[in-house]
């Protein structure tokens, strides 16, 4: 039995941001219809808490597939040549359970995470939103610049990082490619003030975005904190916002951005307006006026990885890319 292996650089070529946004919107609609099986992720921490192994299985009904992602998460890799997320997405077909593809997870994760924010921004941000703040300067900062430009006419960008040199490097590297001017700033407050869209893409364990900095009418994509003890937003930021997420169960169980203000009594479970797929199928209302603050709390779902891997697999087959290897699975 042959299995297709698709590496990092090929995934980037086969999964352009604009196409991935459409793939992820389709997944969110499928999730809203209930045509998925999606257990909560499992995480195995190293004893020193330096990094973890995440295991994320899923079944997706349309397009049909079963599989999952095995990925390590090492936030400290920002100081190394390595990505913070590394691993593989395994794609199986549902007739005989054959392994079809092994796809690089770093690139899948990077692209589909920002694409999910693109879907949420397209659904929730004001139509005239153009002033973008990015907190963080790593891979997700770059991917979110791409996804935000795909769904809104961005004309101003400010980026903040704990290390101002990293922010300046991001601004210099990302400028001059048809992008609007990018300003590296020395505080998250300066980045966030007056922004129409704010994307938090850090590995923070303490809030980097305060509610008092968020302007009326802004939209926030909170991306970097997907498991405890990571947290990017203070309680006021969450309490002030009209809150949406990718999956209710994941938010309630895994998101300290939500769990901590709930523990403090600032919000209850009812503060969650709905999942983004419910907005897309018009089961739940999205933004209702130009003054309210909308918040998309992204946890990252295995079905997103699975759908992105299906797209990569089909594109790779059609274009003759990737490498085929012999694998077990046929009875001898």
Secondary structure elements and pairings:
Layout: E1 2-6, H1 8-14, H2 17-33, E2 36-37, E3 42-45, E4 52-61, E5 64-73, E6 85-92, E7 99-104, H3 105-124, E8 131-135, H4 139-151, E9 156-160, H5 164-174, E10 182-185, H6 188-192, E11 197-200, E12 219-222, H7 235-239, E13 241-245, H8 248-254, H9 256-263, E14 272-275, H10 276-280, E15 293-297, H11 302-319, E16 323-326
Parallel strand pairs: 1-7, 8-9, 8-11, 9-10, 11-12, 12-15, 13-14, 13-15
Antiparallel strand pairs: 1-16, 2-4, 3-4, 4-5, 5-6, 6-7
Helix pairs in contact: 1-3, 2-3, 2-11, 3-4, 3-11
**What is the string of SSEs from the N terminus onward?**
EHHEEEEEEHEHEHEHEEHEHHEHEHE
* DSSP, total strands: 16
User: How many whole angstroms does the radius of gyration measure?
Assistant: 19 Å
Q: What is the helix content?
A: 25-40%
What CATH first level of the largest domain would be assigned? Alpha Beta
Terminal CA distance reads 11 Å
In the CATH hierarchy, the architecture of the largest domain is 3-Layer(aba) Sandwich
- Low-pLDDT regions: none
Q: What best-fitting shape do the alpha-carbon axes yield? A: globular
* Percent of residues in β-strands: 25-35%
Number of structural domains: 2
- CATH domain topology of the largest domain: Rossmann fold
* Structural class assignment: alpha/beta
